[in-house]
């Protein structure tokens, strides 16, 4: 029999206060859910969905997996009906299940609702098995924007299908033969929006251990901005071991186990571990989507309003504050634009001005796209490019980019 050998990480990222993603790994089932909705709604929705999947999983058939997703949908709706402050919450869900009975060959069933993704690692990169149910995917398919434009579209987080919205839900299902050695990646959009597909593929090829690959994916996503919660499961199909040894790798890596030290180092935590208690009342408008479930409300003060008294002291103080603020803004802008680095743009190696991941509202800009395809680099070079090493001048960054060309003829037209 074949089973899953998985490594997983769920991380809050560098911007959000709480983690609204949830994940689940069983012997024959892996699930990622990305919740949405203010006032705890998102984290509750994704957790209810994965709990329901764990409870309902029988592993008998692909249709059974789809039925499990429909049950999870009803559970999310029931919970929202029971707790009015959670009304309008929803979640995406992707599931990879090993199904099949003793007579037939085992099959991998992939179920999807929303914009979380399932990829399969193939010889020349990653094959995306799921189709996003998102606004930008619709725009790409109708030819109104390109794939590259979708990556930076301001409304790229808006989903057009989710659990928790309607009692009936369309679930995409894909089936393929289960082959030992196949490697699947399940992830929330906090990974796929942050890390180019070619870079994800090279990380999956570089790390044999699923747990290490998952940790590296999350580290790189954080390094590139970490603007959303990041969750991924790397799942290998292996021959089932009689003892528990093979399954022992399905652990959450400890941050200390990886050498990725430095100021960007993040703490890896399993999503169903102790949760961050910081309330996140800020609903993300980008994720409220066409369902209009923006729940965040500003708390109006009931104290009587007292107009401030204007004195020369308060004017001088305000002036000084203004000067400090202007200097800070100018300094931030200068810092954000003064760096140079070589990274990946689409599938190609490119020269960027700015800081990797951006600084506050200032994103790095592509200054020159080379003819070098990221996949053509040696593993060493891929690692250097993926790390987005910074240079203090354009010349130094250009020299490094040119040195990648010099090693063979891959830059020739
Ligand atoms: Mg997300």
Q: Could you characterize the architecture of this molecule?
A:
Helices cover 31% and strands 23% of the residues. The protein is α+β, with helices and mostly antiparallel strands. It has two domains: 2-329, Phosphatase 2c, domain 1, CATH 3.60.40; 338-409, no CATH class. The strands form three sheets. Strands 2, 3, 4, 5, 6 and 9 form a six-stranded antiparallel beta sheet that branches. A hairpin with a 3-residue loop joins strand 2 and strand 3 (29-36). Helix 6 (197-206) packs antiparallel against helix 7. Mean pLDDT is 82; it is low at 246-306. The structure holds magnesium ion. Magnesium ion binds at residues 34, 188-190, 228-229.
> Biggest sheet, in brief?
6 strands, antiparallel
- The number of domains: 2
Rg, rounded, reads 23 Å
Number of helices: 11
Strand percent estimate: 15-25%
**How would you state the average pLDDT, rounded?**
82
Look at the structure and give the CATH class of the largest domain.
Alpha Beta
Order of helices and strands: EEEHHEEEEEHHEEHHHEHHEEEHEH
Shape: globular
Bound molecules: magnesium ion
The assigned CATH architecture of the largest domain is 4-Layer Sandwich
Q: Can you say what the CATH homologous superfamily of the largest domain is?
A: PPM-type phosphatase domain
How far is it from the N-terminal to the C-terminal residue, by CA? 49 Å
Number of strands: 15
Unreliable stretches, pLDDT < 50, 5 or more residues? 246-306
